[in-house]
């Protein structure tokens, strides 16, 4: 049944045809078509990157002078693109992340993207709570590593009100827009939060 569903999925087929590692690529492409977040020469941090389709989209857009750093707790297979650097780490391991950035001579990014997903339990309330915890950690990482006026993209599991996340974002960013790209499965609770213009 699952296999049947995947084979029929047009985004899955298109990702295969275009050489993207996952169908998620089309979520970021659609977000960027609407918000124009990605530009040449940018330095971008992509959190929760495995297997790496966001990294492929970002690398193409910022190439050749821009750079992208991908971090995931799972291994990400290397890319031939020389503007992609990879670290296998938990997003809560800020000491390792900071020291990795210093080896790259990078300290601040123009854009941070995250497609983080907790391992789901099937209990929607619990999954939303875990997703919010992860996203709050990412908002804190962005306090340190995102440039002033920079933008942040978060994937959030939304089931009921998400004010625990919305309030901290509104304190820190000029604007919060929410979007469900077409490539998100209808039955999924995921939305993307586009946090625009970090205030300081
Ligand atoms: C939907 S996948 C990301 C897909 C990716 N954006 C792409 O385009 O290929 C979600 C990822 O979140 C990662 N993840 C979940 N919790 C994490 C954590 N605490 N630290 C680092 N990565 C985490 C998982 O390992 C998984 O690879």
List the helices and strands and how they pair.
Layout: H1 2-8, H2 10-18, H3 25-35, E1 43-47, H4 53-62, E2 67-72, E3 84-88, H5 94-103, E4 109-114, H6 124-145, E5 146-157, H7 163-172, E6 173-179, E7 190-198
Parallel strand pairs: 1-2, 1-4, 2-3, 4-5
Antiparallel strand pairs: 5-7, 6-7
Helix pairs in contact: 6-7
Bound molecules: S-adenosylmethionine (SAM).
Residues 21-22, 24, 48-54, 72-74, 90-91, 115-117 line the site of S-adenosylmethionine.
Basic shape: globular
DSSP helix fraction:
25-40%
CATH architectural type: 3-Layer(aba) Sandwich
Q: What is the gyration radius calculated from CA atoms?
A: 16 Å
Reported for the largest beta sheet, the result is: 7 strands, mixed
Number of strands: 7
Low-confidence stretches: 1-5
Number of helices: 7
Name the structural class: alpha/beta
Distance between the termini: 49 Å
CATH top level? Alpha Beta
Look at the structure and give the mean pLDDT.
94
How many structural units, i.e. domains?
A: 1
Order of the strands making up the biggest sheet: 3-2-1-4-5-7-6
CATH topology: Rossmann fold
Name the CATH homologous superfamily. Answer: Vaccinia Virus protein VP39
Strand content: 25-35%
Q: What is the N-to-C succession of helices and strands?
A: HHHEHEEHEHEHEE
Bound molecules: S-adenosylmethionine
